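ERR on first pass: missing label on line 2. Operator R.T. fixed the label and resubmitted. Corrected input:
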Amino acid sequence: MPNQPAISVKGLTKAYGANQVLRGVNFTVPRGTMLALLGPNGAGKTTTVRILSTLLHADGGHVTIEGHNLTADPEAVRGVIGLTGQSAAVDELLTGRENLVLMGRLYRLTKASAQQRAQELLEEFDLTEAADRPAKTYSGGMRRRLDLAVSLIATPPVIFLDEPTTGLDPRSRLAMWEVIRHLMDTGTTILLTTQYLEEADQLADNIVVIDGGKVIAEGTATELKRQIGQDRLVLTFAKQADLEKALAALDGAIAGSNSEPTASIALQNTQADMRTTLEKLEKAGVTAVTIDIHKPTLDDVFLSVTGQHQPAEPTKEVANG
Amino acid sequence: MAELVFEKRPKPLLVLNDILLMVGRSSRHILRNTDQLLGTFFQPIMFLVLFSAVFGGAIEKSLPPGVSYLNFLMAGILVQTLAFGSTTTAIAICNDLQKGIIDRFRSLPMSNVAVLAGHTISDLFRNGISTVVMLLAGLVMGFRSSASFSDWLVIAGILLLFTFAFSWLSAIAGVFAKSVEGVQWLSFIFVFPLTFASTAFVPAEGMNKYLKVFAENQPITHVVEAVRSLMLGLPPGDHIWLSLVWCGIMLVVAIPLTTWMFRRKTSA
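pass 2 clean. output:
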């Protein structure tokens, strides 16, 4: 069944009492690709991942993972998945190596095979120096890397990454992206959840935007961006008269909605468009006080597909343990 | 990447292997949790010294002639230490349930009950350390036993079985409670009365008649009296077989109950 998707989710529903968390979520992930589930806090991302990784029972819907029916054969599903949750699920009193070997053995690898694989992963994830220290001495980034390494110990064909970079500093985030990209190269099917559009854009083949337990948009990063608009150049002027002149000189520029005199213009080709815009301003004899490039954010996705701003703050980083 | 090699064994052996792996994990926890390990060493010594020094003079008068309080106390304080030690099992289980690690275990193709068994079995190891420390401290302080080698084997057997049964009982609290503080309270309200309303520290003669009936017929007293009679060469009466029956009942009730509660709690 080479053409069968690695993950197929149809009509997934889940409620906690009166709180309907998932209202019929559908998506498929073709084998060897990465899908990003993008949405704010409380959108239903983690609930979806918990159901798919057999930790939670769904109320309704049909899910198959690598051909195994989730409801009928959860044990078979556990044999083909790896999970990296929001809270790094490593044993803090065990060393990095012991964590890897223990989990490998629990995946039913032989002792020799688990030890060999642990060594490979420690090298791959740049953890060799810390390998024999208890995990509680690790930094946040190291702990996430170990957590991801643990979920790869038996090289499952499907990996769930639940907000793998939430709460990490920018450097650790970049390192984590590198690791995830490398994982992509090995042909693993990945389901990633994130609240950051940039992360989904950087990593995923396809993006599903989820809000209020429903899929509200989906497509490749390029398709979604086209839908929500490109980078915009935002120019701020000293006085209203300058703005008027600028708007007259620049095709397609629109006045900003805030109290300051600002104009913004969409950039198709960032470098070339910036140059021509600035040349036109020069010719018109207007000088901008500040020049910013505004990148589309998750908020813009919500603005464009729901007409509303995000219900939750997208940038607030809650350290969930 | 090297070729992965998976175990090919029948399922019951794989489950046994899971249990052994989890015992290994919990035993490492015991050895690396230095604060708790210090407690394992010093708490028994402290109890032994305090009880024998504080109560010894007053209680010795009501003991059979020729029995020193230290010799009387030894069996009681051993059983009390083991009963209190079982709380640690509950705390370890509660800790696992609070952390992300339980999701990890549950997403693996392993037997989930191995998590519980890992803690209750490895606690035999920790409680074994406490017992040896306490016996050595007792010997230094003047404890003398007339027990033969085979008597000691029976004593060890009874104490091991009791510890295992009590750890499973305490595991119920570990699964039930929502926090470590909750575990401590739950254990406190059932372990404390059971150990003190027994003949662990004083003979039952001086208790009021209702308390006496309870004290003389509850499991801890049977275990204490069985161990005491073996240590001091007194007639054991029915205490040995009653201890075994009680421990059997605790295991038969606690293992399925804890397992059921654990499955329920972890499969929301």
